[in-house]
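Preliminary data (for renewal application), 6-O-phosphono-beta-D-galactopyranose complex.
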Amino acid sequence: MQYNFPKNFMWGAATSAPQSEGHSLENGKSATTWDKWFEMNPEKFYNNEGPENTSMLYDHYKEDVQRMKELGFNSFRTSISWARLLPDGKTVNQEAVDFYRDYFNELLQNDIKPIINLFHFDMPWWLMEKGGWENSQSSDYFQFYAEKCFELFGDQIQNWTTFNEPLVHIEMAYLHGYHYPAIHDFKKAITVGYNTLLAHAKAVKALKDSEYANTAKIGIILNLTPAYPKSEAAADKLAAKNADLLNIYSFLTPALSGKINDELVALLKQSDLIDYDQIHFDAEIIKYCEVDFLGVNYYQPIRVQAPLKHAEKIEDPSDLYANYEWKERRINPYRGWEIYPEAIYDIAKTIDKLSDKPWYISENGMGVADEERFMNADGMIEDDYRIDFMKEHLAQLNKAIEEGSNCIGYHTWTFIDCWSWLNGYKNRYGFYRVDLNDYSRTIKKSGLWYRELAQNNGFD
Ligand code: BGP
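Predicted structure:
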């Protein structure tokens, strides 16, 4: 069967500043929570691989843009590092401006549309010392940073995003222990979520108030993980609905409509987890949550059942739903994530019900360990599993597009192997392999396949 994609479909990949640039404490950049956490607890990081020398794009960006060109990319997303651009939160680091301007220029010269994100889990340490996103002024600091980005790069960048996967920095740092400060406190998680939402809205407003209001677009990148109930029993279905309220609609409803989801507010209000008067007070700014376009990162769904114990008051997400293991699941054993391409179609339907704004898959991919096992005699990794993974997901996406979904692109994670938060270089996702001894890059079979996909605007 032939799968064709719409005209001008965006083909490319995503990365982030902290995971690809390297030079983490150099060239005027100040520390983020990742630099500090690695300094304090290196044992938490796989193989002691910290954030300092991640894929070294800072040195290689010119050739790397040529490598993107090789792959047929017409678009590419990365982020600006807040701590690099404004090391103390106020003063512009000219070296960072020069680096980003040249990097973006290189992309533009090669007809690769840059989509530039402002925050990808990399909280500057100076702000963490003031409470990070718990601090009620954090959204104002972020607004200042966003304004600076628009001022410094607005003539180059027409597609901005505010946050990558805002839910992840909230739940990983305030519920699951995988990001600093690694505490477990649902109430704090909600405060952090609320301040993140305000920060997003203030950045959107800053762009709309800028001289680029009519030429530039702004969006947000959300990780949408649909919940599938264990059974048709009412309690399991309610659990799935509540999981979606927290994990999908918390950011999707504001992003598509400029309002916080009413059902979510009602749910959290019951247990005094949210300050209703504050939301009312902030309504004028919250309406700026509405974006011009949406990015969706999709890796895995969640499987849920009714909570394991009855709770009078919600004190934790586990009071709303419990996870369970679906017997038929296919798993990527290296990352431990379920592979379920059908969810891409379901996500498209969820978006279509709410809006016809343009959206794209901003991350999708498969991390595999020890890929040198698949190296052929010419030194190329034959990653057929990754090609199959993309085909299956693209087929589902294609079905939704054929049915009218306004999906405008498919970006993978990632372009060249990059550093992963706590997993270092264990699982590789790239179209290019990075050799950590000399940072040389070698194309993988999936890169050659992607080039054909982009050139043909489809696949067989
Ligand atoms: C997404 C993040 C990326 C990237 C990817 C792969 O959630 O936006 O930054 O890391 O997941 O995950 P991991 O690196 O944990 O394997």
